[in-house]
Design brief:
Structural class: mainly alpha
Number of helices: 17
Order of helices and strands: HHHHHHHHHHHHHHHHH
Strand content: under 5%
Number of strands: 0
Shape: globular
Largest sheet: none
Oligomer: single chain
């Protein structure tokens, strides 16, 4: 596929259209997190808290490599438009959900189209800009993601507190309509040099990839309420191993594989995928569970919780822009990624130290450091991989980097959610029992192992008002004990995420500092990608 690279004003319009598509997908990811505590309180499903995110990640992860290959075969524009239309319709379904199961199912559908969007957006950037400019543009797009991440928590908190949490999904409809119109009007259609049909799609590979990934990711996810050695978990993992083994066999034989296995011999590609996987485990720990710090431990309303997430997004914007600039100026740019990973480790450690009564600035400081570290790493690894292969592999490698990040986010969210599900009830029971209160005191506060009442300020106020004055002090002690139990459980979660990110530190040192060529990283006549 020979990319058509528009210039001048047309290039600006095309870039804006693609940026709107990214904004649509990014806004949904950040707007949901702030409202999740209120959603689980209304729909009565704290035990399913992480499933709202996991369902999305499972389907988007599965779809990402498939859509990347389809984009290489048939062009980015059809996939981008289809992804946005499906995403908007699925968002409306999410807003109509009447219980947690319906919401989780709708999020799974939404994730299919989210995977299409994320892989196609970043591959489209690679089509439009040569590598030397691409590094800077990726930094700008990281800033666009950051803008959506700033707007998302604020809007999500405002809608949750003043209207209804369902509006966090309905807001995607007008944004999506604008993005669809813009892409249709401005984005050029790029066709493959050789005519392609549906027969060129690696259907067997796609089916086996889905058959391997879905059971594996669900297996990790159900560890929240199943033992790791339970028949359900081991059975799902067994199915996954068999399907993925068959996938490897098929991919080594088909002419147009979903995942060309030879790419893993490329050191730049291998390091970028592994580092991205490990970093995302820790990053999702911050994204998913920080609202629990604000709303559960510090007792802030959802609106304030959203506002106080913006420092992390400001850090991401700054880090992404800085990374794009440094890559074009520093020969050994691998160390920029190493520095970013080190910052993320420090930020996660600071988050693990938050306790009830802590100053909001303590959390804000940690989030700025997390944002800077994350912003430095993500565009760097994506740009290095795109410069290490031929243009015809851009969709595949771009989607693979996204894929391994999604796998890290899905497994990280599932495993950390398992820690929350298993450890929080034990902590709550232990902390409340340590108070040695008379029987009956604190009734209505979650002593039995569920802390979801902490996320509903109106319910807490109603319970407090219903008590006789002598019991209020004991009631507050029980609340403080539950908050402490939540803080100690989140400490474990952030430490687990920190350990995963720390493994990425030595991995990052093995990145091959591929030069950012001005046009194409390898000659056009070379028949295969560079795997040195």
């Amino acid at each position: 596929m020979t990319p058509e690279r528009p210039t001048g004003g047309r290039l600006v319009l095309v870039t804006i259209g693609i940026a709107l598509a990214l904004f649509l997908a990014a806004l949904d990811q950040t707007i949901v997190g702030t409202a999740l505590p209120r959603i689980v309180a209304e729909l009565h499903g704290l035990e399913l808290y992480a499933w709202v995110l996991t369902a999305y990640l499972v389907t988007s992860t599965t779809m990402t490599p498939i859509s990347g290959k389809l984009g290489d075969l048939f062009g980015r524009k059809p996939l981008l438009v289809a992804g946005m239309v499906g995403f908007v319709l699925a968002s409306a379904l999410c807003g109509q959900a009447g219980d947690m199961n319906a919401l989780i199912a709708s999020r799974a559908v939404q994730g299919i189209f989210g995977g299409v969007l994320f892989s196609t957006v970043f591959a489209s950037i690679a089509d439009l800009f040569p590598p030397a400019r691409r590094a800077r543009i990726q930094g700008v797009f990281g800033g666009i993601f950051g803008i959506a991440s700033v707007v998302g928590p604020v809007v999500g908190g405002f809608l949750t507190d003043n209207l209804d949490w369902r509006w966090i999904f309905y807001v995607n409809v007008p944004v999506g309509a604008v993005a669809i119109a813009f892409v249709l009007a401005t984005m050029p259609s790029v066709r493959a040099a050789t005519r392609r049909t549906w027969r060129d799609i690696d259907l067997a590979g796609a089916a086996l990839l889905a058959a391997g990934l879905v059971p594996m990711l669900i297996g990790f996810s159900i560890t929240r309420d199943h033992a790791w050695t339970s028949p359900e978990v081991l059975g799902l993992f067994g199915i996954s191993v068999v399907a993925l083994a068959a996938f490897v066999v098929v991919e080594s034989r088909v002419p147009e594989p979903i995942v060309p296995l030879a790419l893993f011999r490329n050191r730049t590609f291998a390091v970028a995928c592994l580092a991205g996987f490990l970093v995302t485990v820790g990053f999702f720990g911050a994204i998913v569970y920080v609202p629990l710090i604000y709303q559960g431990i510090l007792g802030l309303p959802a609106t304030n919780s959203g506002l106080l997430l913006t420092p992390m997004m400001a850090g991401i914007i700054t880090g992404a822009l800085t990374s794009g600039q440094l890559m074009t100026r520093i020969r050994r740019y691998r160390y920029v990624g190493t520095a970013g990973i080190a910052l993320l480790v420090v930020g996660l450690w600071l988050l693990s130290r938050v306790r009830p009564g802590a100053a909001e600035t303590q959390v804000v400081t940690a989030l700025v450091i997390v944002g800077l570290g994350t912003g430095l790493t993500f565009p760097l690894y994506l740009n290095s991989v795109q410069s290490a292969v031929e243009p015809r592999y851009l969709g595949v490698v771009t989607s693979q980097v996204q894929f391994w990040r999604n796998v890290g986010g899905t497994i990280g969210t599932a495993v950390l959610g398992s820690v929350l599900s298993h450890r929080l009830p034990e902590r709550v029971s232990a902390e409340v029992a340590a108070l040695q209160l008379p029987p009956g005191v604190g009734i209505g506060v979650p002593q039995s192992g569920s802390a979801q009442a902490l996320f509903d300020p109106a319910a807490i106020a109603a319970m407090r008002a219903s008590l006789p004055p002598p019991a209020v002090a004991a009631f507050e002690r029980v609340l403080d004990a539950v908050r402490l139990a939540l803080a100690l459980t989140l400490e474990e979660i952030f430490v687990f995420g920190l350990l995963a990110v720390a493994i990425a530190l030595p991995v990052s040192l093995f990145l091959d500092d591929v030069p950012l060529a001005r046009e194409h990283p390898v000659p056009r006549e070379q028949p295969a990608p560079s795997f040195g």
